[in-house]
Amino acid sequence: MKEYKKSKLNRVKRGQNRATYDVEKINTILDAGFLCYVGYIYEGKPITIPMAYTRRDNKIYIHGSTANRMLLSILESEETSITVMHLDGLVLARSGLHHSVNYRSVTLFGSLNKIEKDEEKTAILKWIVNQMMPNHWDSLRPMYQKELDRTLVVEFTIETASAKIRDTGVADEPEDYALPIWAGIVPIKQVAGYPISDKGKPEEMGIPQHVLDYYEQNK
């Protein structure tokens, strides 16, 4: 079992029993989604922005406009932190203090690199689209050169990371379990609704099979 080395930077202090540094477990959490939160400093102010991403090995890729201040800021600083979190349930306790959530979260620390070559940028954009909707890229028109020129693709190398996972029930005070108060878990999951065609020609077309497959797997 390969683990990220624990350090002052990535070590989980609160709730250490829920921490994991296992690389495979962390990658599984990353691969379960496509939205991350990227932190940066802009003119001395801390800001966090949600971004679409994809993962390949120990690399995370994000993209945006060549004028995107967040991407430009993190490239200038040459490092950042990225967080991914999945909400799995509401934990409703007998006391307001002990209400919680079940979740899987990962915090990544690493360095950055700007992708320059068009063929590399195109391949990464394909990965990002397909992480959002599997097998979707090949159904799209090719990118125009002007679109590619206006797109900034950033490679984030994971140098260290940690994850926290809560997947247990209510943790009340011992004396509260006898109280006549309902407590329990409300499972939470993200689901897909039936695809809605765009106006115009798509309304006259059949929905692509890979889109229907995604709906069936996630409804």
UniProtKB/TrEMBL annotation:
Source organism, top-level taxon: Bacteria
Record PANTHER family: 5-NITROIMIDAZOLE ANTIBIOTICS RESISTANCE PROTEIN, NIMA-FAMILY-RELATED PROTEIN-RELATED (PTHR34071), FLAVIN-NUCLEOTIDE-BINDING PROTEIN (PTHR34071:SF2)
Species whose genome carries this gene: Tenacibaculum todarodis
Identification of the protein by name: Flavin-nucleotide-binding protein
Taxonomic lineage: Bacteria, Pseudomonadati, Bacteroidota, Flavobacteriia, Flavobacteriales
